[in-house]
Amino acid sequence: DVVLTQTPSILSAPIGQSVSISCRSSQSLLDSDGNTYLYWFLQRPGQSPQRLIYLVSNLGSGVPNRFSGSGSGTDFTLKISGVEAEDLGVYYCMQTTHAPYTFGAGTKLELK
Amino acid sequence: EVQLQQSGAELGKPGTSVKLSCKVSDYNIRDTYMHWVNQRPGKGLEWIGRIDPTNGNTIYAEKFKSKATLTADTSSNTAYMQLSQLKSDDTAVYFCAIVPDWFAYWGQGTLVTVSS
Fold first, then answer.
1. Cβ–Cβ of A94/B47 closer than 8 Å?
2. Contacts of A26 (CB under 8 A, 6+ apart)
3. pLDDT single digits (tens) B18-44
């Protein structure tokens, strides 16, 4: 199974600071169809996951443009350019290139 | 508006089974796969498996192959997941999700508590 390693596991930031989360895969997520099926989700306390980014760098509809995704192959990054209070929660990367699909262990974003 | 409505919380005794449901509104489940994900208390998200409601084809994560059974009823636009031989570490919130708009749509989750 593909292992997704997220770092850091906890991130403390004041409002307005820019932060990045890394997601490294144990194998390439480039699919034979040319797509890289790497997503980013935010889960706020007590809520269902909310999809932020799909196909590495595509911003989901309604997602603020302070979120951005980048990377290729096995290394991926989610960046938040100016953290806001509503961004607090746990961030997960997920891959659907290789079955079984897998999630990273999560990165908790806390207010500093 | 696409919505996924999951069934209510379940309390199951060890060794028994529970069956969870996920009813989809405003989207035909024949046009998507239905995925199931769990989250144990205080832990991360874990992919369980997915079903193609059109033909019933399923893929499971290895650890759930003998635990979860996914089915779907296209006439009622509802997917189901049965969890068998419940153990304490099956206590978790279980989510359903569909693929349209790149996993934009999730159910609210069903809490399953296993206790004697």
1. yes
2. A2, A3, A4, A5, A74
3. 999 999 999 999 999 999 999 999 999
